[in-house]
UniProtKB/TrEMBL annotation:
SUPFAM superfamilies: Trypsin-like serine proteases. Residues 18-133 form the Peptidase S1 domain. It comes from the Eukaryota. Coiled coil: none annotated. GO terms for molecular function: serine-type endopeptidase activity. Gene3D superfamilies: Trypsin-like serine proteases (2.40.10.10). This is Peptidase S1 domain-containing protein. The lineage of its organism: Eukaryota, Metazoa, Ecdysozoa, Arthropoda, Hexapoda. Pfam families: Trypsin. GO terms for biological process: proteolysis.
Amino acid sequence: MPACLDFQQDFDKIQLTAGNVGTVPVWSSPVTGNSVLSLHEYPFITTETCLDKAPPTFQGYITGDKFCAGLDNRTMIHRGNSGSGLTFPSTERLLTRHYLRGIVSISPEWSVEHYATNDFVTFTKITSFEHFIKSNL
């Protein structure tokens, strides 16, 4: 799916609100080499909720340049999917566009099968790296 970039802080705040659902393209099992690409939905969760759910040893990874999204219907992200983009839709004049808001970063736990087994995944905010992204496009 094509994705747009928008670095406006106000737009970021609109899209990153509790319960707003984003989409991530996920490979079913990049570790085993038997991969199927599918789109999974992840609702945004607040930093407060994320910190409440996170084990104490993981809370330090939830920094100002990160946000969390929950695992909807127990869909999972494999380790090999780090770097995938999380987009949120926005409709204007009957046209829906998806905007990149974050990049899959890290999850508190990974099982033996290399799945994220917790209730959320952290994403790196693209707005925190606007200068880097623009200077490398």
